[in-house]
Amino acid sequence: MLYPQRNFPREFFDLHGIWNFPHEKEETVYTSGFTPEKQVAVRSSYNEAFDEEDFRKWMKGCWYSRELSHPRVLQSERVVLRFGSDIYKAQVYLNRKLLGDHETGYIPIEFDIKELIHFGEGNLLCVRTDNVLSLETVLMDNLKKHPEAGHFAGQYPYTPIDFLPYACIQHPVSIYSTSSEAWLESVTAQTQYEVHTGIVRISGIFQGSATHAEIMILETSSTAEAEINEGHFEAELKIDVVTLWNVGEPNLDRASIRLKDESKQIYDEYDQLFVFQTVQIEGNRILLDDKPLYLQGFERHDEYRHL
């Protein structure tokens, strides 16, 4: 799964903004639309968005909805709806049809919506989330409903953690499109270096009828034709002078991968960042390029603005 990009063969639409939002006060499906109790920002946690205790401590289902449209000019393309993460459980509906569900949150989910989206007109997107915990979820519910006195006593809910298990559409929501003929599904970059010379191996998986994969290192303009075998590709490129990544010196290199047909028409393109570095564990030390590394910011979440 690749993070969305906008380039010549790929289009990208951000669905951030204000969505409609109600509690799920009755066990029913709200996929035909609903009268919103509130409007809430996406992405955010509704537990932090409102002052009312009924919203802050709500531990059952809730719904999000919004209207969306998609340009008719992209009607021949593959169209994908992507959620960065939905906490904790999620069911996603488009135009009253279930696209799919997901449990555990924290990781991206995607749905191919080409067959369900109405091009050039309105579409209804509805998402149900809940943060009901159990002994099998991450985070876990507590073994006891009345914990012993101590650090976690008297909390709501009864969990062995020191914060409320927020529920929400937590990370970016977007629609992106690729060619329906061929597209990249994953890209991996592996590096090694000796003194000043480096080798980068670029590999990946694609779908469709592409017959060629071209790889270019943008910083050096070096190129290679990748070997293709049953939906996989791989190439190795040499870089004469590498610049290492280090703390305070975040040097990044970039590889451009292009899928092509026999006539060299571009089906898909993706830029993959990579670095040259080595990381080792030696006793109680972490070594970055053979030098001790001191880590700060332990357990800060990814939304912490200084990370």
From TrEMBL:
<dbReference type="InterPro" id="IPR013783">
    <property type="entry name" value="Ig-like_fold"/>
</dbReference>
<feature type="domain" description="Glycosyl hydrolases family 2 sugar binding">
    <location>
        <begin position="40"/>
        <end position="177"/>
    </location>
</feature>
<dbReference type="GO" id="GO:0004566">
    <property type="term" value="F:beta-glucuronidase activity"/>
</dbReference>
<dbReference type="InterPro" id="IPR008979">
    <property type="entry name" value="Galactose-bd-like_sf"/>
</dbReference>
<dbReference type="Pfam" id="PF02837">
    <property type="entry name" value="Glyco_hydro_2_N"/>
</dbReference>
<dbReference type="InterPro" id="IPR006104">
    <property type="entry name" value="Glyco_hydro_2_N"/>
</dbReference>
<dbReference type="GO" id="GO:0019391">
    <property type="term" value="P:glucuronoside catabolic process"/>
</dbReference>
<dbReference type="GO" id="GO:0030246">
    <property type="term" value="F:carbohydrate binding"/>
</dbReference>
<dbReference type="GO" id="GO:0005975">
    <property type="term" value="P:carbohydrate metabolic process"/>
</dbReference>
<comment type="similarity">
    <text>Belongs to the glycosyl hydrolase 2 family.</text>
</comment>
<protein>
    <recommendedName>
        <fullName>Glycosyl hydrolases family 2 sugar binding domain-containing protein</fullName>
    </recommendedName>
</protein>
